Amino acid sequence: MRKYNIANYVRYKKEVEASLKRVNKPIEGDYAHLTNEEIIINFLPLVETLARKQSTSDQASGVLSINDLLQEGSLGLTAAVSKIDREVLKQSDDQEKTIKSFLSKRIKGAIRRAVDINRGDVRIPEHKLNEIRRNPKDEKMVSMFFNSVFSSIDAKPNNEENMAYQVIDKSEPYNIALLNTYLLSLMKIHLTPVQYDVLRMSYGLDCDKHSANEIAAIVGINVTTAHVRISQIKRDAIQVLIDNVDSSQVLDYL
Protein backbone atom coordinates (compact mmCIF):
# COMPACT_ATOMS: atom_id res chain seq x y z
CA MET A 1 0.00 0.00 0.00
CA ARG A 2 1.21 3.50 -0.76
CA LYS A 3 2.16 5.71 2.15
CA TYR A 4 -0.45 8.33 3.01
CA ASN A 5 -0.93 11.19 5.44
CA ILE A 6 -2.16 9.42 8.56
CA ALA A 7 -2.99 12.68 10.35
CA ASN A 8 -5.32 13.72 7.53
CA TYR A 9 -6.93 10.29 7.48
CA VAL A 10 -7.54 10.37 11.25
CA ARG A 11 -9.02 13.86 10.92
CA TYR A 12 -11.29 12.63 8.13
CA LYS A 13 -12.51 9.70 10.25
CA LYS A 14 -13.29 11.97 13.20
CA GLU A 15 -15.20 14.40 11.01
CA VAL A 16 -17.25 11.61 9.46
CA GLU A 17 -18.06 10.12 12.88
CA ALA A 18 -19.11 13.54 14.20
CA SER A 19 -21.28 14.17 11.15
CA LEU A 20 -22.98 10.79 11.46
CA LYS A 21 -23.90 11.52 15.08
CA ARG A 22 -25.64 14.80 14.30
CA VAL A 23 -27.31 13.98 10.99
CA ASN A 24 -30.85 12.60 10.70
CA LYS A 25 -31.14 8.89 10.03
CA PRO A 26 -33.82 7.33 7.82
CA ILE A 27 -36.94 6.36 9.75
CA GLU A 28 -37.93 2.77 8.97
CA GLY A 29 -35.65 2.79 5.94
CA ASP A 30 -37.30 5.85 4.38
CA TYR A 31 -34.44 7.62 2.57
CA ALA A 32 -36.69 9.51 0.17
CA HIS A 33 -37.53 12.13 2.77
CA LEU A 34 -33.92 12.90 3.72
CA THR A 35 -32.20 15.96 2.28
CA ASN A 36 -29.33 15.52 -0.16
CA GLU A 37 -26.84 16.53 2.54
CA GLU A 38 -28.28 13.97 4.96
CA ILE A 39 -28.04 11.20 2.37
CA ILE A 40 -24.45 12.16 1.56
CA ILE A 41 -23.38 12.01 5.20
CA ASN A 42 -25.23 8.74 5.83
CA PHE A 43 -23.36 7.09 2.96
CA LEU A 44 -19.85 8.40 3.64
CA PRO A 45 -18.96 5.03 5.25
CA LEU A 46 -19.91 3.39 1.92
CA VAL A 47 -17.32 5.59 0.18
CA GLU A 48 -14.59 4.32 2.49
CA THR A 49 -15.67 0.70 2.03
CA LEU A 50 -15.46 1.02 -1.76
CA ALA A 51 -12.24 3.05 -1.69
CA ARG A 52 -10.51 0.42 0.42
CA LYS A 53 -11.38 -2.27 -2.12
CA GLN A 54 -9.21 -0.41 -4.63
CA SER A 55 -5.57 -1.39 -4.36
CA THR A 56 -3.28 1.57 -3.59
CA SER A 57 -0.11 0.02 -4.97
CA ASP A 58 1.88 2.09 -7.46
CA GLN A 59 0.82 -0.23 -10.29
CA ALA A 60 -2.87 -0.11 -9.43
CA SER A 61 -3.44 3.56 -8.69
CA GLY A 62 -0.39 5.49 -9.75
CA VAL A 63 -0.02 8.56 -7.54
CA LEU A 64 -3.28 8.12 -5.60
CA SER A 65 -3.29 7.19 -1.90
CA ILE A 66 -6.29 6.05 0.15
CA ASN A 67 -6.92 9.70 1.10
CA ASP A 68 -7.14 10.61 -2.58
CA LEU A 69 -9.50 7.72 -3.28
CA LEU A 70 -11.75 8.82 -0.41
CA GLN A 71 -11.88 12.32 -1.85
CA GLU A 72 -12.69 11.12 -5.37
CA GLY A 73 -15.31 8.72 -4.03
CA SER A 74 -16.92 11.50 -1.97
CA LEU A 75 -17.11 13.71 -5.05
CA GLY A 76 -18.77 10.83 -6.88
CA LEU A 77 -21.22 10.37 -4.02
CA THR A 78 -22.15 14.06 -4.00
CA ALA A 79 -22.74 14.08 -7.75
CA ALA A 80 -24.79 10.88 -7.57
CA VAL A 81 -27.07 12.10 -4.77
CA SER A 82 -28.11 15.09 -6.86
CA LYS A 83 -29.39 12.68 -9.53
CA ILE A 84 -31.58 10.54 -7.28
CA ASP A 85 -35.18 10.28 -8.49
CA ARG A 86 -37.17 10.66 -5.26
CA GLU A 87 -40.39 9.34 -6.76
CA VAL A 88 -38.73 6.14 -7.94
CA LEU A 89 -37.07 5.78 -4.55
CA LYS A 90 -40.41 6.13 -2.73
CA GLN A 91 -41.87 3.29 -4.79
CA SER A 92 -39.04 0.90 -3.93
CA ASP A 93 -39.80 -1.97 -1.56
CA ASP A 94 -36.29 -1.68 -0.12
CA GLN A 95 -35.13 1.92 -0.33
CA GLU A 96 -31.78 1.25 1.35
CA LYS A 97 -30.88 -1.48 -1.13
CA THR A 98 -32.03 0.64 -4.07
CA ILE A 99 -30.15 3.77 -3.08
CA LYS A 100 -27.05 1.86 -2.05
CA SER A 101 -26.91 0.12 -5.43
CA PHE A 102 -27.42 3.44 -7.25
CA LEU A 103 -24.72 5.24 -5.26
CA SER A 104 -22.21 2.37 -5.26
CA LYS A 105 -22.02 2.26 -9.06
CA ARG A 106 -21.34 5.98 -9.26
CA ILE A 107 -18.86 6.07 -6.39
CA LYS A 108 -16.88 3.21 -7.92
CA GLY A 109 -17.07 4.91 -11.31
CA ALA A 110 -15.66 8.15 -9.88
CA ILE A 111 -12.79 6.26 -8.22
CA ARG A 112 -12.02 4.28 -11.38
CA ARG A 113 -11.97 7.42 -13.52
CA ALA A 114 -9.58 9.13 -11.10
CA VAL A 115 -7.32 6.07 -11.10
CA ASP A 116 -7.36 5.85 -14.91
CA ILE A 117 -6.39 9.50 -15.18
CA ASN A 118 -3.52 9.21 -12.69
CA ARG A 119 -2.27 5.67 -13.22
CA GLY A 120 0.70 4.90 -15.38
CA ASP A 121 1.99 8.40 -16.00
CA VAL A 122 5.46 8.03 -17.43
CA ARG A 123 7.80 8.48 -14.51
CA ILE A 124 11.21 7.06 -13.66
CA PRO A 125 11.97 6.88 -9.93
CA GLU A 126 14.78 9.26 -8.98
CA HIS A 127 17.07 6.47 -7.74
CA LYS A 128 16.70 4.70 -11.10
CA LEU A 129 17.32 7.91 -13.02
CA ASN A 130 20.54 8.50 -11.07
CA GLU A 131 21.62 4.91 -11.70
CA ILE A 132 21.11 5.34 -15.44
CA ARG A 133 23.12 8.57 -15.47
CA ARG A 134 25.98 6.97 -13.54
CA ASN A 135 26.29 4.16 -16.08
CA PRO A 136 25.96 5.79 -19.51
CA LYS A 137 27.94 3.01 -21.25
CA ASP A 138 26.28 0.13 -19.45
CA GLU A 139 24.61 -2.16 -22.01
CA LYS A 140 21.69 -2.55 -19.61
CA MET A 141 21.07 1.20 -19.48
CA VAL A 142 18.59 1.26 -22.38
CA SER A 143 16.74 -1.68 -20.90
CA MET A 144 16.58 0.05 -17.53
CA PHE A 145 15.24 3.21 -19.14
CA PHE A 146 12.37 1.59 -21.04
CA ASN A 147 11.43 -0.80 -18.26
CA SER A 148 11.31 2.16 -15.87
CA VAL A 149 9.23 4.26 -18.25
CA PHE A 150 6.73 1.54 -19.08
CA SER A 151 6.35 0.56 -15.44
CA SER A 152 2.98 -1.14 -15.92
CA ILE A 153 4.86 -4.25 -17.07
CA ASP A 154 6.41 -5.27 -13.78
CA ALA A 155 9.37 -7.54 -13.46
CA LYS A 156 9.46 -8.48 -9.80
CA PRO A 157 12.40 -6.58 -8.28
CA ASN A 158 15.01 -8.30 -6.15
CA ASN A 159 15.46 -7.49 -2.47
CA GLU A 160 18.03 -4.79 -3.14
CA GLU A 161 15.66 -3.01 -5.52
CA ASN A 162 12.83 -3.39 -3.03
CA MET A 163 14.90 -1.42 -0.53
CA ALA A 164 15.51 1.25 -3.14
CA TYR A 165 11.82 1.60 -3.90
CA GLN A 166 11.22 2.57 -0.29
CA VAL A 167 13.19 5.79 -0.81
CA ILE A 168 10.87 8.77 -1.14
CA ASP A 169 11.09 10.31 -4.60
CA LYS A 170 11.46 14.08 -4.17
CA SER A 171 12.26 14.84 -7.79
CA GLU A 172 10.26 17.33 -9.83
CA PRO A 173 7.53 15.85 -12.08
CA TYR A 174 8.45 15.26 -15.70
CA ASN A 175 7.16 17.23 -18.62
CA ILE A 176 4.91 14.33 -19.59
CA ALA A 177 3.98 15.77 -22.98
CA LEU A 178 7.64 16.15 -23.91
CA LEU A 179 8.54 12.61 -22.87
CA ASN A 180 5.49 11.19 -24.65
CA THR A 181 6.52 12.95 -27.87
CA TYR A 182 10.04 11.60 -27.51
CA LEU A 183 8.80 8.05 -26.95
CA LEU A 184 6.42 8.23 -29.92
CA SER A 185 9.26 9.34 -32.20
CA LEU A 186 11.33 6.29 -31.21
CA MET A 187 8.34 3.99 -31.51
CA LYS A 188 7.55 5.15 -35.07
CA ILE A 189 11.08 4.29 -36.13
CA HIS A 190 11.42 0.86 -34.56
CA LEU A 191 7.96 -0.68 -34.11
CA THR A 192 5.44 -2.24 -36.46
CA PRO A 193 2.15 -0.35 -36.89
CA VAL A 194 0.35 -2.80 -34.56
CA GLN A 195 3.06 -2.59 -31.89
CA TYR A 196 3.03 1.19 -32.17
CA ASP A 197 -0.74 1.44 -31.75
CA VAL A 198 -0.88 -1.06 -28.89
CA LEU A 199 1.83 0.69 -26.92
CA ARG A 200 0.59 4.25 -27.44
CA MET A 201 -3.03 3.36 -26.58
CA SER A 202 -2.05 1.23 -23.59
CA TYR A 203 -0.21 4.15 -21.99
CA GLY A 204 -2.23 7.02 -23.47
CA LEU A 205 0.82 8.62 -25.05
CA ASP A 206 -1.22 10.69 -27.52
CA CYS A 207 -4.78 9.70 -26.60
CA ASP A 208 -6.91 8.47 -23.73
CA LYS A 209 -5.72 5.19 -22.21
CA HIS A 210 -7.51 2.15 -23.60
CA SER A 211 -8.23 -1.22 -22.05
CA ALA A 212 -6.73 -4.34 -23.61
CA ASN A 213 -10.09 -5.38 -25.05
CA GLU A 214 -10.65 -1.93 -26.56
CA ILE A 215 -7.22 -2.01 -28.17
CA ALA A 216 -7.80 -5.52 -29.50
CA ALA A 217 -11.00 -4.38 -31.20
CA ILE A 218 -9.26 -1.39 -32.77
CA VAL A 219 -6.26 -3.32 -34.15
CA GLY A 220 -8.42 -6.24 -35.28
CA ILE A 221 -7.46 -8.98 -32.82
CA ASN A 222 -10.58 -11.14 -32.54
CA VAL A 223 -9.75 -13.95 -30.15
CA THR A 224 -11.20 -14.89 -26.77
CA THR A 225 -7.85 -14.22 -25.08
CA ALA A 226 -7.37 -10.82 -26.70
CA HIS A 227 -6.11 -9.23 -23.48
CA VAL A 228 -3.36 -11.86 -23.27
CA ARG A 229 -2.34 -11.18 -26.86
CA ILE A 230 -2.26 -7.42 -26.24
CA SER A 231 -0.05 -7.93 -23.18
CA GLN A 232 2.33 -10.03 -25.27
CA ILE A 233 2.47 -7.37 -28.00
CA LYS A 234 3.27 -4.74 -25.36
CA ARG A 235 6.13 -6.83 -23.99
CA ASP A 236 7.45 -7.55 -27.48
CA ALA A 237 7.27 -3.87 -28.44
CA ILE A 238 9.21 -2.78 -25.36
CA GLN A 239 11.82 -5.44 -26.06
CA VAL A 240 12.17 -4.20 -29.64
CA LEU A 241 12.87 -0.71 -28.31
CA ILE A 242 15.41 -2.09 -25.84
CA ASP A 243 17.15 -4.06 -28.59
CA ASN A 244 17.24 -1.29 -31.18
CA VAL A 245 17.45 2.10 -29.49
CA ASP A 246 21.00 3.37 -29.09
CA SER A 247 22.09 4.40 -25.59
CA SER A 248 23.07 7.85 -26.91
CA GLN A 249 19.40 8.46 -27.83
CA VAL A 250 18.35 7.78 -24.26
CA LEU A 251 21.09 10.02 -22.89
CA ASP A 252 20.01 12.78 -25.27
CA TYR A 253 16.69 12.88 -23.47
CA LEU A 254 18.08 12.50 -19.96
Regions with little confidence, pLDDT below 50 for 5+ residues: 152-174
Q: Approximately how much beta-strand content do the residues carry?
A: under 5%
Q: How many helices in DSSP terms? A: 15
Task: Give the tally of β-strands.
Answer: 0
**What fraction, in percent, of the residue positions are helical?**
55-70%
How would you classify the helix and strand content by structural class? mainly alpha
* Number of separate domains: 2
Give the SSE order as H and E letters.
HHHHHHHHHHHHHHH
Cα-to-Cα separation, first versus last residue: 30 Å
Whole-number average pLDDT? 77
In this structure, how is the largest beta sheet organized? none
| Oligomeric form | single chain
Radius of gyration: 23 Å
Global shape: elongated
